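Bumping with the actual sequence this time:
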Amino acid sequence: MNNSQSEAQGVIRASVCMASYRGALYIQEQIESVLVQLDPADELIVVDDASGDNTVEIVKGFLDPRIHLIEVAQNQGYVRSFEQAVLASRGKFIFLADQDDLWLPGRLELMLETLQTSGVVASNFDVLGGGPRDGVPELRAADSTHYLRNVLGTVIGYRPYYGCGMAMTREQAQIFTPIPGYIVESHDLWLALCGNVGKTMQHLEEPTLLRRLHEENVTPRGWRSIGTILRARIMILRALAEAIRRNRATRI
């Protein structure tokens, strides 16, 4: 279905799911970079996690019918906010977006094309301003079908899956949600496990966004304590077992 047919029939092709929290400094620029790539019948769902600044007012100021704002009264964390946004979405294809990045032109169409044959797509990113990637390696397209290696890399922590560079089909979202309650961080690694276990992951070597690195990034930039690392790995192992269970259940 082309863009004109989508608009005429009111079909929601793409749902962009964004979690916001105290994002007043950056969210307007990010939303602008998203909206310019959406069709009139597409949607942007923003779940605001009880921001204490004027993030909500900025989102409301767009007056764009494609934006659907969900205000959360009590802080629930970004994983639950992304989950809520995905559950509220109606599009055939679902994109994850952070509040402080910038989408590069052509991102939506490039990832939509990939999702015609894959359940999950993960892309690379460039750093806003051209700075270093803080040692983060790049995804390689040739590794897309190395599902076992990708799973091991996700569990160990060296496969660079970032939610801001990921998208999925509606069918994949039914495996992704509900996100297990013990997953309190790294929703992107959960999605990566679901996609690789189901053998439907595709890597894009092209960067599709500019990632803004600052002191308030949710993804940690420095070293974490041993205890924190161990707890995170145990969580990911539990998530792997659940991803296997859900993918098996879909085949029955």
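The tokens above came from a reply further down the thread. Residues 1-8 have pLDDT under 50 and may be disordered.
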